[in-house]
Design goal:
Layout (H helix, E strand, L loop, with lengths): L7 H15 L7 H7 L21 H19 L4 H8 L4 H10 L4
Helix pairs in contact: 1-2, 3-4, 4-5
Length: 106
């Protein structure tokens, strides 16, 4: 009940589907649902970002952040792009594919 469900109904559906597949019994328990939930990465703290100084390549910083989290999410999901899309809170699979192509992530 306290989960924010940032992926809205699609995230809820995916979680319940995973829980039903992974459950050891015919009834889905609270523990099954907790195990099936995908943890989201924490928000980036502004103190971790580079200082503006005499200028900054904002697009480059954003690309670095995207590259870091896409790579981590792909590792966590064993390369499953559908799960990676959900884990990163992206609106759809195509967004992930476009970002991977732009950032040259295999």
């Amino acid at each position: 009940m306290s989960h924010a469900w940032p992926g809205n109904i699609r995230e809820l559906h995916g979680t319940l589907l995973r829980a039903s597949i992974w459950a050891d019994t015919e009834e889905i328990t609270e523990a099954d649902i907790k195990e099936a939930m995908i943890e989201r990465p924490q928000q980036v703290k502004t103190s971790e970002l580079p200082e503006i100084g005499n200028g900054i390549d904002v697009q480059g910083v954003l690309d670095d952040i995207k590259r870091k989290y896409i790579t981590q999410a792909l590792k966590k999901t064993a390369g499953n792009k559908k799960e990676t899309t959900a884990l990163l809170g992206l609106p759809n699979y195509q967004t992930l594919s476009n970002w991977m192509e732009k950032l040259d992530i295999q």
